[in-house]
Amino acid sequence: MKLNIALLAGDGIGPEVIDQAVKVSDAVAAKFGHEISWTPALTGAAAIDAVGEPYPDQTHEVCVAADAVLFGAIGHPRFDNDPSAKVRPEQGLLKMRQKLGLFANVRPTFTFPSLIEKSPLKKERIEGTDLVFLRELTGGIYFGKRGREDNDNTAYDTCTYTRAEVERLAKKGFEMAMQRSKKLCCVDKANVLETSRLWRETVQKLEKDYPEVEVSYEFVDAVAMRLVQWPSAYDVLITENLFGDILTDEASVISGSMGLMPSASLGEKTSLFEPIHGSYPQAAGKDIANPLATVLSAAMMFETAFGLKDEAEAIREVVNKSLAEGVVTEDLADGGKAYKTSEVGNWLAENI
Amino acid sequence: MKLNIALLAGDGIGPEVIDQAVKVSDAVAAKFGHEISWTPALTGAAAIDAVGEPYPDQTHEVCVAADAVLFGAIGHPRFDNDPSAKVRPEQGLLKMRQKLGLFANVRPTFTFPSLIEKSPLKKERIEGTDLVFLRELTGGIYFGKRGREDNDNTAYDTCTYTRAEVERLAKKGFEMAMQRSKKLCCVDKANVLETSRLWRETVQKLEKDYPEVEVSYEFVDAVAMRLVQWPSAYDVLITENLFGDILTDEASVISGSMGLMPSASLGEKTSLFEPIHGSYPQAAGKDIANPLATVLSAAMMFETAFGLKDEAEAIREVVNKSLAEGVVTEDLADGGKAYKTSEVGNWLAENI
Ligand SMILES: CC(C)[C@H](C(=O)O)[C@@H](O)C(=O)O
Ligand SMILES: CC(C)[C@H](C(=O)O)[C@@H](O)C(=O)O
């Protein structure tokens, strides 16, 4: 199979961790007889510096032409604490999501037995946690009308959802539930918000098409509590953009494996794969960042974008092996030997 | 001093836990030479049953005439999973907040050394946690314009804030920070929302009036993570209505003392005090519910509404004593003797 992949390394540690994912992907492709063509493109602060735009048109064209996008991280400290700056890396992210139509953000949270002690939660609370959030990513209050009124003394944001937007996301949720344990939780604030009532109505209507799926409806505040109390009670959760932003970040810390969590953003045509961690500028260029979340994002890409399950499994296996054998970066070394980012990548590629 | 208190017991376990708070308040009043006049009024499902309205006008008049409101809990299972029902107990809550102008919800989260093991988080993560959220309670997306368009196929909600609303809440936050450890965190989503940018601007302008307060600005998704990672890093947090709804519930579970957490909702004239737990209908009428959160809410009332610090301290002390001596309801009994709700109340009143 010929795989055309757009490569958006981004800022901070992005380029370093992306390099390792490329090595591992190339190794798995060689083993299974595929050929990958990587097309790099600029994004984030790097793109602002080069062409004054965090998601330039050229980059968009590269993404559209590709079968999948592998993404590092964006964000740079010089843009922090200045949310009103004219051009910001995050705007590139939002523009990219919208222009590529990446409507479903898939964020798994699971535990690695060898890392479970790193969780702030007690082991007995998180054992067996294996949940996945489906966050709507191109609608809601992120993309609604906003502005100032009344002589700059009033600000407003609008949250809007159409039935079609909810349906598209919810269907993905039901399908995912069918492939997992047939449990789906719709997270909303239907006791207050009209958009949430539309969400609930729409999901309720879909229930008859998936009679095997057991659906629950929970309020976002309750889920924010229960995620910390008993995360293993959840399986597939679907929710709107802003709730998803908050809850997926909350969920990511409970497993103790935050630095290892991959994610996918699915569109009708193109899909994008990226680690959930940020650009971690303090570590940039030092060859110390943990590349595993990006490598596991590449695994998600093989499985989700190309339907190549064995290839994905091969990557996950070699990652587990590296953890078991202690071939890990300093964040996981725990007093043992700390390998460099590039050394971990080389080891993974060789052991595929 | 003569204290006029409106008594809104509400639904479920509300009446039982309120009874204990009344006993303890009367005991502390007798000890310190005050006289309390309690005026009961209907609210929640109880009010819907009686007069078809969750927050009837008569109840509002009782609250307006009082110096403070002590509130139990509202909510009844027959209204659950029917968010579009015409009359719902929660509507009473929102109407009450709005009509009484309860603009600042104060939600402390602290640890009781004897309960620290109940937390889902590891002890070393939560030791020393003592934070307080100030949630804006009468604005934002809870009270903005909402509706349907496009043949019922689109729903929208509007989040609106005025500079004056933000300033009023933020000032309370700065004042509270001055009385505590002079650290204030403004939680927003200023990288996306215009209302958040107004929040940040307004808080930034106030900084010069409180030069001793160290202010930080964090995004809501980051706070959702850090609350679980290192809750003790926070002190006073201010935020808008919906973020506050989610984060205060999340924060309430980390200390392991959720069943004991009080809260206050401050208005310009009247203030309201209530436990953060719900109406817990399964336990209603069984005399088993833990009354301590309501008793501690009464303590907050003495201190905040009446400036009676010693009285508040006397209540907190007797609560600590009951915990130390194991005079607790079944949720805290841990294999030891479980006292009834009313027995705990009697013991507290006698030991004041
Ligand atoms: C950077 C920011 C705009 C973005 C979001 O809120 O979606 C980020 O928090 C995320 O979750 O990818
Ligand atoms: C019942 C509901 C409307 C309410 C809210 O969202 O404010 C509740 O969750 C709370 O926090 O008091």
TrEMBL record, chains A, B:
Its EC number is 1.1.1.85. InterPro entries: IsoCit/isopropylmalate_DH_CS, IsoPropMal-DH-like_dom, Isopropylmalate_DH. Substrate binds at residues 97, 107, 135, 221. Binds 1 Mg(2+) or Mn(2+) ion per subunit. Residues 4-348 form the Isopropylmalate dehydrogenase-like domain. Its main location: cytoplasm. It holds the Pfam family Iso_dh. It is found in: Cytoplasm. GO terms for molecular function: 3-isopropylmalate dehydrogenase activity. SUPFAM superfamilies: Isocitrate/Isopropylmalate dehydrogenase-like. It comes from the Bacteria. Its cofactor is Mg(2+); Mn(2+). Pathway: Amino-acid biosynthesis; L-leucine biosynthesis; L-leucine from 3-methyl-2-oxobutanoate: step 3/4. Keywords: Amino-acid biosynthesis, Branched-chain amino acid biosynthesis, Cytoplasm, Leucine biosynthesis, Magnesium, Manganese, Metal-binding, NAD, Oxidoreductase. NCBIfam families: leuB. Belongs to the isocitrate and isopropylmalate dehydrogenases family. LeuB type 1 subfamily. Homodimer. This is 3-isopropylmalate dehydrogenase.
